[in-house]
């Protein structure tokens, strides 16, 4: 019904990316309608998702028939065929879907998707490649980058600072980063204060620019 589909997400393309995405949405408790033109894939997914439909998603009539306009959020997860991806996004936009998320596989593909009206363009290979490069060459454990190079990172307590309190370290003055919180293995996360001690086995949540964070994480 309309009420429940408002919280649901339609995913087009059950390839490696779309399949992972659909599975994650289900685990997060959302209803998923999946569309793929491949009958074998539709069969394989049919008992895991709420609804799996075999259809050509570039076909507006077919999309109307599955009731796509009842969905506020659609993800076009087709990668290999730029043509199918672009035509599907176009059809979704024309049918008035409020939030069309589209997967790009190249810079040019991303540009076209934005031009035909995708509201969000995601480029998993580029994003993951860039992320993993940072994780490989620095001692950051994880990070989220916001615009303008600003980021929040998860880092081990840098060797050079182990055992010191934040009032001694003065991270903003010394390194330009702010320590938001600390966590020891097996203990809950705690917001940082001047008296927080950087225990050697601790994990920190730190904000700053990516450069500052990398420098901070690598202090030995
Ligand atoms: P991945 O890299 O995630 O495996 P692919 O591009 O190989 O992505 O897979 C995309 C999926 O989208 C495939 O399962 C394919 O059958 C499906 N697909 C491609 N074009 C259409 C279309 N026009 N309508 C419906 N599904 C499509």
TrEMBL record:
What are the residue boundaries of the RCK N-terminal domain, all occurrences included? Answer: 6-122
Start and end of every RCK C-terminal domain? 138-220
Q: Which Pfam families match?
A: TrkA_C, TrkA_N
Single biological process term from Gene Ontology: potassium ion transport
Q: Which PROSITE patterns match?
A: RCK_C, RCK_N
Which top-rank group of organisms is this from? Answer: Bacteria
Named from the GO MF annotations, one term is: monoatomic cation transmembrane transporter activity
Identify this protein by name: Trk system potassium uptake protein TrkA
Organism (species): Micromonospora avicenniae
């Amino acid at each position: 019904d309309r009420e429940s589909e408002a919280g649901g997400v339609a995913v087009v393309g059950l390839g490696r990316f779309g399949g992972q995405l659909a599975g994650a949405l289900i685990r997060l408790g959302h209803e998923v309608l999946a569309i793929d033109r491949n009958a074998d894939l539709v069969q394989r997914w049919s008992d895991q998702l709420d609804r799996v439909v075999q259809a050509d998603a570039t076909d507006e009539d077919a999309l109307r028939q599955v009731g796509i306009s009842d969905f506020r959020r659609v993800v076009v997860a087709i990668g290999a065929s730029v043509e199918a991806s672009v035509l599907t996004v176009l059809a979704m936009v024309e049918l008035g879907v409020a939030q069309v998320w589209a997967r790009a596989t190249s810079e040019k593909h991303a540009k076209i998707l934005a031009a035909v009206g995708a509201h969000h363009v995601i480029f998993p290979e580029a994003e993951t490649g860039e992320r993993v490069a940072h994780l490989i060459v620095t001692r950051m454990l994880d990070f989220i980058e916001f615009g303008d190079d600003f980021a929040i990172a998860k880092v081990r307590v840098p060797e050079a600072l182990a055992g010191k309190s934040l009032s001694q370290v003065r991270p903003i003055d010394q390194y330009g980063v702010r320590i938001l919180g600390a966590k020891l293995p097996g203990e809950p996360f705690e917001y940082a204060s001047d008296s927080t001690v950087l225990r050697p086995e601790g994990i920190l949540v730190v904000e700053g620019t990516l450069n500052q964070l990398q420098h901070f994480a690598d202090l030995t």
